Amino acid sequence: MPRNRRLPCALGAGAAVFSGFQMLGVIVPAHDEESHIKACIDSIRIAAANPSLHGEAVLILVVLDGCTDGTARIASDGGARLLWVNAQNVGMARAVGAHYAIQAGARWLAFTDADSVVGPQWLSAQLAQGSDAVCGTVEVRDWSDWGLHSERMRQQHVATYNDADGHRHIHGANLGVATSAYTRAGGFQPLVSSEDVALVQALRQKGASIAWSAAPRVVTSARRAHRAPGGFGATLARVAGGFS
């Protein structure tokens, strides 16, 4: 099946291409992300080629949720397999991608966001934790979207955010989970935000071991036009609101 063939849901003939092979699945939900998706996919490809993975296959899935721009073309040109939904729901988009990856044979599911760039050791650092799931931190390098508040936003973030092992942050932009643990926890719920928090809560209830690690590195956007009403961008907006 050509990699850019349109699929109505998570399952399709393409799953058989990878069936029977052990591999890693990377899922990226995207809604009109043509300005960010290339850098995201390029970084995942670098992480997938890390020598410490010993050549294990990595399936990169971009779940296009109601996209009307050039995200699909750019992601496909970058080597990602495309899935389509029209839900405007990040929880559903992540779940669709996870289900496809599991059907294709993925033993580990790694999640990031389309406006994020993962580090070269992102996947290997997740696996190195030896846990059922890994909650990673995020780093922001560009605060310019906040205009006159940019430096104050940066300082506030540095002062309050714990970018170290043992943190308790949960980010869909830097999350990994073993397929077996994900399945036991019931997967992502169809939530428009905090779907990552709900999954981690379900994992804990099922007794999954969770590594709260700063080793898997992800640089994410601090854009003002955030997508998830309860996500990282919304948190930044609340902080900025206190500066007015």
Characterize the structure shown.
- The protein is an alpha/beta fold.
- The chain has one domain: Spore Coat Polysaccharide Biosynthesis Protein SpsA, Chain A.
- It has helices at residues 15-18, 37-48, 71-77, 90-104, 122-128, 150-160, 179-185, 195-205, 232-241, and strands at 23-30, 57-65, 81-85, 106-111, 116-118, 133-135, 175-178, 210-212, 218-220.
- It has a seven-stranded mixed sheet, with helices on both faces. A two-stranded antiparallel sheet has the order 5-9.
- Strand 2 (57-65), helix 3 and strand 3 (81-85) form a beta-alpha-beta unit.
- Helix 7 packs across helix 8.
- The protein starts with 14 loop residues before the first helix and ends with a helix.
Task: Give the number of domains.
Answer: 1
Q: What characterizes the major β-sheet? A: 7 strands, mixed
So what's the overall shape?
Answer: globular
Question: Could you say what the CATH architecture is?
Answer: Alpha-Beta Complex
Q: Under the CATH scheme, which class?
A: Alpha Beta
Q: Report the average pLDDT across residues.
A: 88
Largest sheet: spatial strand order: 3-2-1-4-7-6-8
> What's the Cα radius of gyration?
17 Å
- The H/E string reads HEHEHEHEEHEHEHHEEH
In whole angstroms, the N-to-C terminal distance is: 53 Å
Strand element count: 9
Low-confidence regions = 1-19
Beta-strand percent range: 15-25%
